[in-house]
TrEMBL record:
Gene3D superfamilies recorded: 2.40.40.20
Identification of the protein by name: Aspartate 1-decarboxylase
PTM notes: Is synthesized initially as an inactive proenzyme, which is activated by self-cleavage at a specific serine bond to produce a beta-subunit with a hydroxyl group at its C-terminus and an alpha-subunit with a pyruvoyl group at its N-terminus.
Superkingdom per UniProt: Bacteria
Pfam families: Asp_decarbox
Pathway linked to the protein: Cofactor biosynthesis; (R)-pantothenate biosynthesis; beta-alanine from L-aspartate: step 1/1
Compartmental location: Cytoplasm
UniProt-annotated catalytic positions: 25, 58
Protein task: Catalyzes the pyruvoyl-dependent decarboxylation of aspartate to produce beta-alanine.
UniProt cross-references to InterPro entries, sorted A to Z: Asp_de-COase-like_dom_sf, Asp_decarbox
Binding-site list for substrate: 57, 73-75
Note accompanying the cofactor annotation: Binds 1 pyruvoyl group covalently per subunit.
Record keyword NAD present: no
Amino acid sequence: MIIEVLKSKIHRVKVTQAELNYVGSITIDADLIDAANIIPNEKVQIVNNNNGARFETYVIKGERGSGIVCLNGAAARLAQVGDIVIIISYASMEMEEARNFEPVLVFPDTDNKLIK
């Protein structure tokens, strides 16, 4: 049996931009996606702590060290600059593999920077 499990999570980052007139996606600082083991174009779920919105989109790599978390296209309607979001990716795997799998959890600071 194949199940879907948490693969990666960037916990409580601040939305820094919202660009409605864009094709779509979420742009995330390259430092954050690398730390979370997320790759460009990977499907992610976004959970907005401020308004409860939950939606899916794909990742675009942002400028390294910038702290950028920018919702693009229609997703820009689901959060405002300053909202706190959680970015989640999932993986499909066999039940036995899932029992021993350890997800990558990233807890950035209030400026969306990695805590060293």
